[in-house]
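Amino acid chain:
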Amino acid sequence: MTTPGSLSREILALAVPAFLALVAEPLFLLADTAIVGHLGTASLAGLGVASAVLLTAANLFVFLAYGTTSIVARQVGAGALKAAATASLDGSWLALGVGVIVAVPVAAAAEPLCAAFGASAAVVAQGSLYLRISALGLPAMLVALAATGGLRGFQDTRTPMIASVAGFGANLVLNLVFVLGLGWGIAGSAWGTVIAQTAMAVALVAVLVRRARREHASLRPQVFGVLRAAATGVPLLVRTLALRAILLLTTWVAAGFGDVALAAHQVAATVWTFQAFALDALAIAGQALTGKSLGAGDVVGARAATAIMLRWGGWGGLVLGLLISAASPLLPALFTPDPDVRAAVGAALVVVGLAGWLAGLVFVIDGVLIGAGDGRWLAGAMAGTLALYLPLIAILRANTAMVASWGAPASMVALWLAFSAFMLIRAGFLWHRVRSDRWMVVGA
């Protein structure tokens, strides 16, 4: 019989390595931002718009990780390990094809994509240079996502942790060498990312291949399996499209407030990403455990694990958020020497931190429902959230001149309060769903 103590240990066994892996990425992104920030405000703002586009191009296909985790975990729960190994490789094959298809237009349209935010010519020049190079790493980024999802489905979060720490550590070293040592500027940061992402993808796929051989699974792409992975991903793609639209619209409004506000928003968004990734460790555990439990027909275990993770997520978000708010006078100096940008960053981080408890709850429920394969409902809920967020962000954009006249710090507070309202709307949808039993469908 599953006890609360054994469930807690199982959650921790998955969540702790996932936490270290997830925190590794934003920590090194914070370091990258700090390195580029010392090249000047235009470079930092350029990184902001380019990162928004690049992360959109990559995160639109985060279903490659989430969907693969759900499919593989259900097969593991049902005891079908060969089918699980095949599904993990099918997800990686799909990721490779999608990555190549996406990388070409992103690289070709780098300048107009960056210009779409309405930033200055200097910012667009820096951003398009970074984006054109970084697009070369998109296939590797997506393959790494899918391979990570497959390993999580096997209840293995330790291997992705090792790959993340090694990969992002190498990225930091390469950026220091290319940007500061060789003087390549923002292009050096892009090349460091491409090289590190490619190495991570190769390492993760190698682990999946060894597992597939052990289970005597085929290494070739299985048409049905690839199509199943794609079909599972469609609702999650819609969900992610709506989410990325919200993030892009927020960056678009920040760009309308001027280069200082945009640079500050890039730093604040990077810190928010760190917060999100740290709290997402429980969401990863939720994906893996929920899929496995429902695959094995254990509805009671899935519900009990969800209750534990919700408590931990709420408290973890509260503590981390308060730490961010308390550190808001100190953190901006790590990213930029510009006093105006520092003041705006500090104001934004207070709001980011105060909403931390809400983020903790949102990410846990989202992970549980993804693990349950509840993608269609998640797609509708995120589309509804976007519809409710649009009026808020439209009001800010329509009053750009007035809000900008308040100064960059006040502009950032207004923007991040609106973003916190988005998180509150999202939490309402998710809480309504997780309280019901309609997402608890059992079987492989």
Observations:
- Residues 4-434 form one domain.
- The chain has one domain: 4-434.
